[in-house]
Amino acid sequence: MTGLPPVAVTCGDPSGIGPEISLGAWRALGADVPFFVIGDPAHFPSGTPLAVIDDPSQAPAAAATGLPVLPHAFPDPARPGRPTPANAPGVVEVIRRAVDLTRSGEASAVCTAPISKKVLADHAGFGFPGHTEFLADLAGGAQAVMMLASDELRVVPATIHIPLSAVPGALTPELLESVIRITAKGLVRDFGLAAPRIAVAGLNPHAGEGGLLGAEEMRWIGPLCEDLRAEGMAVAGPLPADTMFHAEARARYDAAVCMYHDQALIPIKTLAFDRGVNVTLGLPFVRTSPDHGTAFDIAGQGIANPASMIAAIRLAARIAATRASGGGA
Ligand SMILES: NC(=O)c1ccc[n+]([C@@H]2O[C@H](COP(=O)([O-])OP(=O)(O)OC[C@H]3O[C@@H](n4cnc5c(N)ncnc54)[C@H](O)[C@@H]3O)[C@@H](O)[C@H]2O)c1
Ligand SMILES: N[C@H](C(=O)O)[C@H](O)COP(=O)(O)O
Predict the structure, then answer these.
(1) Which of 153, 165, 252, 275 is the most exposed place for a label (fewest CB within 10 A)?
(2) Whose CA is nearest to atom 6 of ligand 1?
(3) Which ligand is nearest to the CA of 293?
(4) Does ipTM surpass 0.90 in this model?
(5) Where does a divalent metal cation bind (predicted)?
(6) Which of 92, 132, 159 is nearest to 288 (CA)?
(7) What domain range includes position 206?
(8) Helices (DSSP H) in the chain: which residue ranges?
(9) Whether residue 326 sits in one domain with residue 218
(10) Are residues 275 and 153 in the same domain?
């Protein structure tokens, strides 16, 4: 226990595995890492020992008897695997509520259960491609940087939720430089690393093969890395992306900054799908999430693995404690 307020966990899509992995997290963590879920008490698996609270401060004591839930009423029941349009706006309201509670100091961090972007776009007018971009907006337009972290590997996609065809146009020296700087700062502030080492992936096969397979590396990614090295930052690259994720290569850096979503997320979800955590860097509050989605295909069957959610709640509490102590700052 840190003495900090509890972590606010959003319900995510109630028809996904959010309710059951939250229950799994409470079973594993009990009151050791205080948290509460914001959601509809009727959405949890039948037989869930619930501890309904009306204030986040009650969560640590409530956790001794059941899963602490701060109620948020939804119009429809949760139908596992079959999201209902009427519930979509509530999913967004819950995220806002978790952020408000964290910004007011009643919660120490936000941990989000998975949402379906498509369901929210279709039925809640959600104008963002993911939590990351929504949270950046709630933070007043901060530049939010997505990191997925595990013991084996940390990765950061410089461009996030955009089509592959849009990546070369969206990648600019300004964007990449700020992503590298926010990553370095996050590794110091939130992960307590004194001198973080960052590896930067190339965009093209073989990092462009000297211009034969693409020009971006020679034209500006390489020179940007040079400039940052000249400043004293430990930045390696641009490295060929196909050979930078094996065990020996990973030992040489603390985070890999990649050019697009799948370049970053395929290696970590292959190595650590059951324990990776999505952390948003660059926000004025702490936010984590499990590294998987709504898993509608298995929702309600009681087989979803709660390990990534457990790791996400633990990491949220740890980062909040590090920030509160001024630890890595
Ligand atoms: N943090 C988030 O909100 C988040 C993250 C990723 C994906 N998504 C969303 O989730 C939806 C589904 O995405 P997807 O199908 O690509 O990925 P997914 O992670 O939901 O599922 C991929 C596969 O992994 C399995 N799986 C996922 N989590 C599991 C767990 N905890 N235990 C056991 N098996 C698990 C699923 O059953 C499925 O077979 C999409 O709408 C996507 O946008 C949300
Ligand atoms: N890109 C993430 C993944 O594939 O795991 C996922 O979509 C979550 O993104 P947000 O945290 O922005 O919702």
Answers:
(1) 165
(2) 293
(3) 1
(4) yes
(5) 161, 206, 261
(6) 132
(7) 145-281
(8) 18-29, 59-62, 88-103, 117-123, 131-138, 167-170, 173-189, 216, 222-230, 247-250, 261-272, 307-324
(9) no
(10) yes
pLDDT tens digits for 66-84? Answer: 999 999 999 999 999 999 9
Pocket residue to mutate for ligand 1, from 275, 294, 296, 309, most atoms within 8 A of Cβ? 294
Instruction: Report CA(66)–ligand 1 centroid distance (Å).
Output: 26
* pLDDT tens profile 185-218: 999 999 999 999 999 999 999 999 999 999 999 9
Task: Please report the atom of ligand 2 found closest to the CA of residue 114.
Answer: 13
- Total domains, the chain: 2
DSSP code at position 217 = I
Annotated binding site for substrate: 131-132, 269, 278, 287
Q: How many residues would you count in the chain?
A: 329
Same domain, 252 and 289: no
Sign of the CA dihedral running 110, 162, 160, 261 = positive
- 278 vs 290: CA distance, rounded Å: 6
Ligand 1 closest atom vs CA 278? 1
Whole-prediction pTM: 0.96
